[in-house]
Structures are given as structure tokens and as C-alpha cells.
Amino acid sequence: MLLLIFELLGSIALLIYGMKVMSEALQKMAGPQLRHLLGAMTTNRLSGVATGALVTVAVQSSAATTVMTVSFVNAALLTLTQAISVIMGANIGTTMSAWIMSAGFSFNVTMLVWPAFFIGIILIQTGKQRYLGDFLFGLSFLLFALGMLKQVGVDMDLASKPAVVNFFASFDSGSYLTILLFLLIGSVLTAMVQSSAALMAITMVLCSTGAITIFQGIALVMGENIGTTVTANLAALNANTQARRTALAHLVFNLFGVIWVLIVFFPFVRLVCGIVGLDPYAESQSPTQLSFALAAFHTGFNVINTAILIWFIPQIEKLVCAIIKPKITEDEEESRLQFIRGGIMKTPEISVLQAQKEINVFGSRMQRMFDLVQTLTPDKDDDEFQKIFDHIAKLEDISDNMENEIGRYLGEVGQAHLSDDTKAKISGMLRQIGELESIGDSCFNLARILRRGRENKVVITETQSEGVREMFSLVSKALELMNTSLTHRRDEFDFALSEGVEKQINETRNQLKQHNIQDLDKRVYSYDSGTVYMDIVSECEKTGDYIINVVEARMMISHHQI
After folding, report:
1. Backbone dihedral region for residue 332 (phi beyond 0: left; psi -120 to 50: alpha; all else: beta)
2. Beta-carbon count within 10 A of 496 CB
3. pLDDT value of residue 560
4. E strands within 218-264?
């Protein structure tokens, strides 16, 4: 018996590993297309559900899809409404795993393992289609584990063990209390193992060996649907408010499903069993039909639940927003694409308009980022300084995401048949977002220079502080003018103003650099102090260069108001 227990645990471990390898290989094969698919196909509820289902079937992991969705919401690439519909679809897509497992209990799947292993190792060793080889390896481990589980179930023959039979017989299958207990057990075990697939396999083994009834098995499956939401909620612990709301929406969705199924539990189970030709009260039952009944229930549960709740996505959104309140400082920190909602609008000209509005938001965010840099003063205590620094780092990550997503969007717009004027606009806008992202990098570099000086206890003199404040003031003015140029027509903006400020920044940099050399010669302050001081001044000058580049790119495309 001890050997059989180890075989059971080993089979489950191999099953989890196979699912993991297969899922990761599929995600690598899909690459960034998964992200683009989620963004472009979630324009409405139905397409969002379809997208979530397709992606989950592709990667064979609802946990991967939900965690991916939470991360996209955190990175401002999906809205909460889009994410809820994707997660609904993921719950449908994950039922494919249950059908694969039920097939494993209906015939000897191990005969497929060895050819898959052989082909997989060839692909991996030759380097051609390596990810396909990894996928075949993962699939082989999965099928091999299913075959072992089936055999372990037969060898254990739990139905002939009086102690086991008496233990499970002590639970009345017709009692709601028993159903609730098994539901709780399924939830806890799935949360612990972090794999609903593994628990589904265990449930099938227990049912096929006669250890538990189909009613108890389905109660475990219901619990697995709740336990699997723990993965996304754990992933969202350190994410922003919208991401945490997305994970909570996943839990709300499954909880609602469990509640309505509990109300009609026994009639619903009898209906599912009738569909697969299984008598739930028969003493002798076919392992194949039992596994099919579990898979059919899993599919029916999620499909019906989605069909009901898809019309109540706005209400679910309101509920999770009411439960999870934003932090006081997080309203500014949370940023998502406000005008680009996924997909390309039918009129390329309107798409360009949406992208330019998003660039305006990008510009204002970079100005706010630089304002935060100016608050990293020596008088701040360590905790407050670190909090501001972390906020700046967060905004730098957001700037990277914004550049990528706006750039991808413009690239897709550019594939349409466009006029020369629109092509010129897109070219200029691509340059704008590249320079805006560089401004974000410079702001983060400034924050790191200030932190380095603080950590090394570098003393900045009042003269140096005045020079830094002067540079900061000029860069702030340049940013204000840049954002004015982004939001106004060309004939409403005087490019000479930006040119003048850029010239002032360069001249001030040169003056401060010369004064620094003289002060170091006179030993007015230490070399370390002079190094940090000049690093700040030089980075400000670089920021000014990026700013004027944005304005130049904007002026090139502003013959008409965008």
C-alpha cells in the first residue's frame, strides 16, 4: 500500500509537471501574440469570453490565462471590464483539460507517449521547432501520468478495502452537509496544490475505483473551481487596485456558480449523468462513464455560469470596486490606456486620433514623473524617500508598456491603406512615443542618482542646490511647453519657445559644469559631491534633448489638428 501511495503521489507530480511544461511551451510558441490577442479581441463581452477560452485551450492552463490577465490589467493593457470577460472564457477553456483526462481513463493513452517522446527529443536536440519539442515532452509526461493514475486506481482497488468503504460510506451522499464538506475539501486541496488539473485527476481516480460516489466527486470538482481562483489572487497581492479587482472578480464568478448549482445540485447532477448515460445510484458503474460525467459537469457548470453572468459584467465590476477601494495615492499611480481599447477602429484616421490622445496622456504622465523626482529632497525621511522612489520606478515601467502598446497599435494602423499625410503622422507619432519613453528613463536615472547620493551620504552645498533647482526649473518649463504642443494645433504653438528653453538648458549646463571644475580646484566640496552634482545636471540636459525631440516630431505632423 505504501508503494501504491508513492506511485499515486509521483503520478500527480508528473501530471503537474507535464501540464506546466506543455503550458510554458505553448506560451513560448505563441509569444507576444497572446498579449496582442487579448488586447485586440476583447472589444466586447462575447469576444472577450471567446478570447479567454481560446487562449486557455491554447496554453492548457486557466491559471496561466488568469495570471496573465491580472498582469495585463496591472500594466494598464486591459480594462477591468475586458479582464472579467476574458476570465469567464478561461473558465470555459480549462474544461478541455478535464476531457483530456477523461479520455485517459477511457483507453490506454500510454501507447501515444513513446512516439511523442521520440519526436520531441529529436526536435529539441536538433534545435528546430524546439518549443514544439518541449510541448510534446510535456504532453508525453501528462499522458504517461494519466496512464499511471489509471493503473494505480486499479491496483489500489479501494472499493474492496473495508476501512476505505466504511469511511466514505459514513458520509451520506444525499446530504447537503456532505456535499458542502467535499466542496470545502476540494477548495482547500486545490489551493494547496495550485493545480485544479491534479485534483481533477485524483477525483477521477477516487470515483473510478468506487471510493466515492459521483455526487461526492462533483462536489470536489465544484470546490476545485473555487480553489483555483487562489492562484490569480496570489498573483495580484502586490499589484494595483484594478488587478486585485480582476482577481476578486474571478472568485465572485465561481462563487456565484457554486451557489446556484448547490440550489439545484441533485437534479442538475442527475441531468448531467443522464446525458452521458450514467446511473448515479447504480452500485456498479463504468470508470469511463464516471470520468465523462465529471468532465461534462465541469463544462456545463462553466458554460451555464458564463451564459448567466456575461450580462452582469457591469454589476460584477461595481461589486468588486465597492469591495476593493483604491489607495489614496493609487489613483495617480494606476494608469491604463484610456483611448486605445483594443482592436483597430474601422477608420484609420480615427485610430490615429485615438493614438494621439493616448500620447497626450503619455506626455502628462512624464511631466508628473519629473515632478516626483523634484520631491526627492535630502530632508525626506528614509521611508518617504523610498515610497517616492518606488512610485517613480512604477511610472517608468508604465512608460515602457505605453510605448510598446501605442507603438504596436500604430503599427497595425499603418498596415491599412493610408494617405501619405496619415503615414507621416504615424511616423512622427512613433518618434514621439520613443522620445517620451526616453524621458521616463531619464527621470528614473535622476531618481537613482539622488538615491545614490543619499546612500553614500554625499553632502550637497547650497550653491550646488541652487544649480540643481535652476536645471529642474528649466526642464519643468520645457515639459509644460511640450505638453502644450501635444494638445494644440501647430499654428497655435510657437516652436521658438521650446527652442529657447532648450538653449537655456544647454547654456546653464555648460556654466554649471565650468563652475564645478573651478570649485573642485578650490576644494569647495568633495569630488564625490561634484560627481553626483554633475550627473544630475547632465541627466537634466539629456532630458531636455528628449523633450525638444518630442516637440519637433509633433510640429512635423501638426499641419492639421489631430
Report:
1. alpha
2. 8
3. 40
4. none
Residue 206 amino acid letter:
L
Contact 352, 422 (CB under 8 A): yes
Per the model's pLDDT, the better-predicted residue between 476 and 337 turns out to be 476
Taking only the tens place, the pLDDT of each residue in 281-294 is 777 777 778 888 88
Residues in the chain: 562
SS3 content of the chain, % helix, strand, coil (to 5): 80, 0, 20
Cα distance between residue 73 and residue 236, in whole Å: 10
Between 356 and 343, whose confidence is greater? 356
Q: By C-alpha distance, which of 323, 324, 271, 327 is closest to 300?
A: 271
Cα–Cα distance measured from residue 327 to residue 319, given in angstroms and rounded to the nearest whole number: 17
Alpha carbon distances (Å) from 360 to 66, 342, 353, 374, 423: 31, 18, 11, 22, 19
Mean pLDDT, the chain, as a whole number?
A: 80
Residue that is written with C-alpha cell 573651478 in the block:
518
Cell 547650497, located at residue: 462
Residue in 342, 329, 356 with CA at minimum distance from that of residue 38: 342
Q: What is the pTM of this model?
A: 0.55
Helices (H), 127-195: 130-156, 162-169, 176-193
User: Which whole number is the average pLDDT over 419-437?
Assistant: 86
Q: What's residue 229's pLDDT?
A: 81
Count the helices and strands in the chain (H runs, E runs): 24, 0
Q: Tell me how far apart the alpha carbons of residues 69 and 63 are, in angstroms, rounded to a whole number.
A: 10
285 Rama sector, left if φ>0, alpha if ψ -120 to 50, beta otherwise = beta
Instruction: Please give the Cα distance from 555 to 484 (Å, whole number).
Output: 12
Distance of CA 31 to the CA centre of its chain: 14
Rounded to an integer, what distance in angstroms lies between the CA atom of residue 479 and that of residue 371? 10
| C-alpha separations of 469 from 316, 388, 389 in Å | 48, 18, 19
Residue 553 · residue 363 · CB < 8 Å = no
CB atoms within 10 A of CB 179: 25
- Stronger pLDDT, 325 or 37, i.e. the higher one: 325
Q: Is residue 481 within 8 Å of residue 499, measured between CB atoms?
A: no
Cα–Cα distance, 124 to 309 (Å, whole number): 44
The CA-atom distances, in angstroms, between 329 and each of 219, 240, 322, 358, 391 are 43, 11, 17, 22, 10
Q: Which of 141, 97, 99 is nearest to 116 (CA)?
A: 141
253: cell is: 464568478
Q: 387, 559, 377, 503: which is closest to 450 by C-alpha? A: 377
Q: What are phi and psi of 94, to 5 degrees?
A: -70, -15
Q: In the chain, how long is the greatest CA-to-CA distance?
A: 98
Distance, CA of 109 to CA of 127 (rounded, Å): 27
- Whose cell is 556654466? That residue is 511
Enter the C-alpha cell of residue 441.
Answer: 528613463
Q: Comparing C-alpha atoms, which of 492, 382, 399 is closest to residue 444?
A: 399
**119-137: per-residue pLDDT in tens?**
888 888 877 677 788 878 8
Residue 364 burial (C-beta neighbours within 10 Å; 0-12, 13-18, 19+): middle
